[in-house]
Amino acid sequence: MKSFVLLLCLVQLLGCHSVPAGPRLPYREPACDDLETEQAALAAVDYINQNLRHGYKHTLNQIDKVRVWQRRPFGEVYHLELDTLETQCHARDPTPLANCSVRQVFQHAVEGDCEMHVLKQDDRLSVLFAKCDSTPDSREDVRKVCPQCPLMAPLNDTKVVHAADAALAAFNAQNNGSYFKLLEISRGQLVPLPASTYVEFAVAATDCVTTGVTDPANCKLLAEKQYGFCKATLTEKLGGEEVAVTCTIFQTQPVALQPQPDAANPASPPPALDQAAPVPSAAGLAAAALVVGPKVVEVPLGPPRHQAHYDLRHAFTGVASVESASGEAFNPPKGAQPGIAGGAGLVPPPCPGRIRHFKI
Question: N vs C: which end of the chain shows fewer Cβ within 10 Å?
């Protein structure tokens, strides 16, 4: 009996070794810091910034996770999880992202958390799906680095709003050209010593001239938008207050013509927006062509005014996981496992990837 059991076990063991390897499973997992992964991540961040209308541009900080799915009939889809950091460039600032400084911890940094689907086909990259949110660093962490540094205040704080209004009035009084209107308050901080309010805000030019404005409500924004970004400090003093403001006015931005769906087929999805721009390069990263899509149909109004920053979750309202060129939805199969390139015991590629700036 014992001999029979031993023989049966031996047969089963030999049978296990004789089973041929199965077909490759649905996705693969390259390393988070591989060249191909970083190209897709930079294309995703570029897409985020192209669609921001409020707050500040973001830059890539870390790639947390990547899976690459085969897409039929051609191409691959990169499913990415990314961490970003807020820069000091406003969303409407045309300064290239590479020239934008990252907001440091002592300035009360903001971190973004994004899930993106990026299609790579014929060496071109297009964003199929974008979902992000962002969170300021905790008060406790800021205090550890800089106990006396001011923290972010709600955008509708009465002192912040008053400082922005007073600073804009001072700027318009010094300006002999177009009258500028407040577009948004982007950031506010209450400084204890000396008692003051620091505020950053975006402005837009109107069809009025500052010297002839009697009722600002009648001033309309220009058709070809001209935006600006201001930083100001309102200091409280005995018997009054003092305002110091500096504004940078950006070049006029022409009206962008949005592509429309094929008139012969109203049900067809809108075509991708071909920006014909290279993916930002870093440390010798090879450039790749970039196609941006899907189109954001409507510019969201931003977060509730009681918040202290413009959350990235409000940047992609209406963006669906669809493919502009083919209309084919990208839905990874549930319960799928990674593709296996070799035998048993293969070590998974390293993720998350390197931290480019700092972790909060």
Answer: N
